[in-house]
Amino acid sequence: MPAFHSIEELLKTLSREQRLLKELFAKRKILSFRYEDALALVDYKEERIRKLVDSEVVRENGSFLELEDSYLQFFEQILEVNEEINISFVHEHITYLIRYPISFRKTTRHSDTAICGISNGHCVTSPSPLFAM
Predict the structure, then answer these.
(1) Cβ(33)–Cβ(66) under 8 Å?
(2) Is the pTM of this model over 0.90?
(3) What spatial distance separates the first Cα and last Cα of the chain, rounded to whole Å?
(4) Pick from 4, 15, 20, 86: most CB atoms within 10 A?
(5) Cα separation of 17 and 87, whole Å?
(6) Distance (Å, rounded) from C-alpha 44 to C-alpha 57?
């Protein structure tokens, strides 16, 4: 049985419980959002939390609540706030720095980062390829 029967029902539920969902998302890395604290955000109406749990928006973990993974990933992706580090990206740039010894400096124009490479004793600047994404 689907958790929601329509997009309208889903959106109404997310809107009604936005205070709780906002707090759960903000504290997603702490993993210690107590059920009692959640009750205060839904005007002490346990049926509202039960609806989120039954609809698999939120899950209970002992006496704590947390966002279900599918909603957590959706919010992180849409808001572009996923804090996982891409190891291959870091490795690629470390290899570049080892291969081409350079020093970084801030330019005066718009605080853009530039590369200062030493050529015949002079600093030659160019936009940094490390920060082009």
Answers:
(1) yes
(2) no
(3) 42
(4) 20
(5) 36
(6) 18
Q: Which sign does the torsion angle of CA 77, 59, 2, 6 carry? A: negative
Residue 9: phi, psi to the nearest 5?
A: -65, -45
**Domain residue spans of the chain:** 7-79, 87-128
d(CA 130, CA 96): 9
Give CA–CA dist 115/99, Å, rounded: 14
Instruction: Tell me how crowded residue 10 is: count the other CB atoms within 10 A of its CB.
Output: 15
Q: Mean pLDDT, the chain, as a whole number?
A: 77
Give the mean model confidence (pLDDT) for residues 53-67.
Answer: 93
Fold that domain 7-79 belongs to in CATH: Arc Repressor Mutant, subunit A (1.10.10)
Backbone φ, ψ for residue 125 (5° rounding): -100, 150
